[in-house]
């Protein structure tokens, strides 16, 4: 089956808009990769970061990705989040291939469909928690009042009602990561991608943050993909785990 032609657009609630609205007969998985391969060319040397990755993930799933340093975890997540492009193979999101998107379409996909969080939080030091969360909406047509209202509600949901006007250096690591999660959710993404979100946190705070992701997954049916080298942490919450080794799937564990 060939994927229907499509584009991401700026407007509308629906994140994916088809050119001619061809709706697949069966509901496809939220994510499916086929032969996903990523080769970085460094002058004369090629580094194969991902090799023939095939997996699918249903809507509402929680996939953990683990493996040793350099095994390709971040590369895979970055491809799923359209921060990077595969060298070959395909990534289907709801049956539509995102591997061939141009840069503008990739940016729209990142903005509307994929929320991302990282080990280093990546929130802006000069802005308050609320401003950080509302920031991705600046590029949308959402009026300022609603931008701030959405940020307010998400910070409440993250248990940060009393921290909204704080700047990142006035927040703990766990609180900063909660701000980052709220920011990742502000555009109602279809999938939340987390790259070592607990890498800079102590074990108690790590459990709390994974607990937040797990709750979003269970209560709101948000599809989550989380990279962590701590397999034990993933086993507590994920429905399935992919273990990478040298860019290949070594094991796909269903829990
Ligand atoms: N931009 C790049 N240019 C060249 N090589 C890269 C680039 N990004 C990653 N690589 C290489 O691809 C391989 C996979 O890297 P990746 O960052 O995906 O690993 P990882 O599993 O996330 O590791 P870690 O646990 O240390 O974060 C590594 O060999 C790395 O050196
Ligand atoms: Mg990494």
In a few lines, what is going on in this structure?
By secondary structure, the protein is an alpha/beta fold.
Strand order of the largest sheet: 8-9-10-5-11-12
Per CATH, the superfamily is: P-loop containing nucleotide triphosphate hydrolases
User: How many structural domains does the protein architecture include?
Assistant: 1
DSSP summary, beta strand count: 12
Ions, cofactors and other bound molecules: adenosine-5'-triphosphate, magnesium ion
Task: Enumerate how many helices there are, as a single number.
Answer: 7
SSE order:
EEEEEHEEHEHHHEHEHEE
Helix content: 25-40%
Strand content: 25-35%
- CATH topology grouping: Rossmann fold
Query: Based on the structure given, which CATH architecture is correct?
Result: 3-Layer(aba) Sandwich
Mean pLDDT: 91
Pick out the low-confidence regions. 1-7, 11-15
- End-to-end gap: 30 Å
Content-based structural category: alpha/beta
Record keyword descriptors for this entry.
single chain; 255 residues; alpha/beta; Rossmann fold; six-stranded mixed β-sheet; four-stranded antiparallel β-sheet; 7 helices; binds adenosine-5'-triphosphate; binds magnesium ion
What report would you give on this structure?
The chain is an alpha/beta fold and 255 residues long. The protein has one domain (59-85, 100-254): Rossmann fold, CATH 3.40.50. The chain has helices spanning 73-80, 103-112, 129-134, 144-157, 173-185, 203-220, 231-237; strands at residues 6-7, 17-18, 31-42, 45-57, 62-67, 88-93, 96-97, 114-118, 191-195, 223-227, 240-245, 248-254. The model is unreliable at 1-7 and 11-15 (pLDDT under 50). Adenosine-5'-triphosphate is lined by residues 40, 42, 47, 49, 67, 69-75, 229.
